[in-house]
Amino acid sequence: MIIPKRKTDLNVHVRNLFADGRPIVLVHGVSASADYWGKVIELLPRDRPVISYDLRGHGTSGKLTPPWTVDDFAKDHVELLDALGLDDVDLVGCSLGGIISQAITLNYPERVHRLVLVSSVAGRTPEESERSLARLHRIENNTIEEIAEESVVRWHTPEYIEEHPEVREKVLAQLRHLDRESYAASYRVLATTDHVDRLGEIAVPTVAITGEGDVGSTARMSELIAERVQNGRAVIVEGAKHSLLSETPEVVARVITEHFATGGEQ
Length: 266
Hints:
The protein is of the alpha/beta class. It has a domain at 12-124 and 194-262: Rossmann fold (3-Layer(aba) Sandwich). The protein is built from eleven helices and seven strands. The protein has helices spanning 38-41, 70-84, 96-107, 126-141, 144-155, 158-163, 167-177, 180-192, 219-228, 244-247, 249-262, and strands spanning 12-15, 24-27, 50-53, 89-94, 112-118, 206-211, 232-237. The chain has a seven-stranded mixed sheet, sandwiched between helices. Helix 2 (70-84) crosses helix 3 and helix 4 (126-141) packs antiparallel against helix 8 (180-192). It is globular. The chain starts with 11 loop residues before the first strand and ends with a helix. 45% of the residues are buried. The mean pLDDT is 94.
């Protein structure tokens, strides 16, 4: 933790803020927190500043007040950069954080130098949109236990669940900690936001990475993102689902490190 230059009620985690090099900023997904980047952060270059934070309504950051939009999340992000005295950064967003990172890059292009989107969403089909809204309905109406069980299966491969049976209790504890109103409002942003028609405005070098078995952030979506942005490529991780940060952190860290080290030229 650090004391920022200006006040913010977002919980911020910082490594090597004053190191040389452009900071890497990590934006997590819905129902998660900055801690979910832990395995990836350990594998990132030690000579770069690395910043992660709890989105509003998550972790120990302040609650959000519905109605809430992706642009509100993007504004929070830019205000945090201002509080830390940062200009442009290398940006990584996962899941909801990927949608937020798209919005940041579209709304504040001068604040993003290079971009990595992990398990992100764009170009949902009508059927995929219907499934997302159905899950939103369950989140708004079902018990935490029911939501947690569905999340475990949705996010993780069967092999990982078998090897890490504690993941069920971990996800349940994670969801119990959340403010239900903030959780539902955040998932509504995830379920209803789609920047597919604006992706062509993204000029910064971009990598979109997802698991081949991810049912919500599909391989097709990452390939579409890579095709639509001005300078993009896709990475599809074989045998993986949604939780790349937990199951394949070394792959995510390698993609981030290589993309940001090379300048992202394709």
